[in-house]
């Protein structure tokens, strides 16, 4: 996986993304993850890897300053079409591994299905933490392999094939979070879909 390949994959997949990942169990999981967030007027919110904007509906209509970034221009175009003329949302083409914002810029950072698709998940996680304000929150919705044990054989066999499609089904969220736990409190870590493969993780920046 690399950014150049991911751009090609998501340019090709943008017209079909919502059919696959914003319907059925994915739509239900997104609702479970995002509808109970404690949002306050004026908060600065960053959606990292906004994709086609599947999560925007949980934030539009509220008095928030929303920044939505994605590596793929094709995905951003889809997201912009969902947002319409909402003047409180700005869209930027940007690498989630290199967020061009000052330290502690946002009250809430949303990382929805991004840690499993970036080439370097550890670099991405460092950026998520860096741009989050003290006492701010990071909400992660993504797929992971689970704990420290070995992946099932079928998943180990499928992992390199699935990676060609721009996603990694074998990343360990505990390993991703571990270097940052001195600066983070884990407020929630719960299954969101397909057993415990897809998880909702809510973090507070100390």
From TrEMBL:
The name this protein goes by in its record: Type 11 methyltransferase
Q: Describe the location of the Methyltransferase type domain by residue ranges.
A: 47-140
* GO biological process assignments: methylation
MF GO annotations: methyltransferase activity
Q: Which UniProt keywords apply?
A: Methyltransferase, Transferase
Q: Which CDD domains match?
A: AdoMet_MTases
Under Gene3D superfamilies, the record lists: Vaccinia Virus protein VP39 (3.40.50.150)
Do you know which PANTHER family this protein is assigned to? 2-METHOXY-6-POLYPRENYL-1,4-BENZOQUINOL METHYLASE, MITOCHONDRIAL, METHYLTRANSFERASE
Source organism: Paenibacillus woosongensis
For the keyword Ion transport, the answer is no
């Amino acid at each position: 996986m690399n950014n150049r390949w991911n751009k090609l994959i998501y340019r090709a997949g943008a017209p079909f993304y919502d059919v696959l990942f914003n319907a059925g169990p994915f739509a239900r999981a997104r609702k479970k993850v995002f509808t109970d967030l404690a949002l306050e007027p004026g908060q600065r919110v960053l959606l990292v890897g906004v994709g086609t904007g599947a999560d925007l509906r949980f934030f539009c209509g509220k008095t928030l300053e929303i920044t939505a970034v994605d590596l793929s221009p094709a995905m951003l175009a889809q997201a912009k079409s969902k947002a319409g003329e909402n003047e409180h949302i700005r869209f930027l083409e940007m690498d989630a591994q290199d967020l061009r914002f000052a330290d502690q810029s946002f009250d809430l950072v949303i990382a929805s299905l991004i840690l499993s698709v970036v080439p370097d998940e550890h670099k991405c996680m460092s950026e998520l933490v860096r741009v989050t304000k003290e006492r701010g929150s990071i909400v992660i919705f993504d797929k992971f392999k689970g704990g420290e044990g070995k992946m099932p054989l079928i998943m180990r066999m499928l992992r390199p094939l699935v990676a060609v499609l721009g996603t990694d089904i074998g990343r360990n969220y505990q390993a991703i979070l571990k270097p940052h736990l001195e600066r983070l409190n884990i407020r929630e870590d719960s299954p969101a879909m397909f057993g415990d493969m897809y998880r909702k993780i809510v973090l507070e920046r100390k």
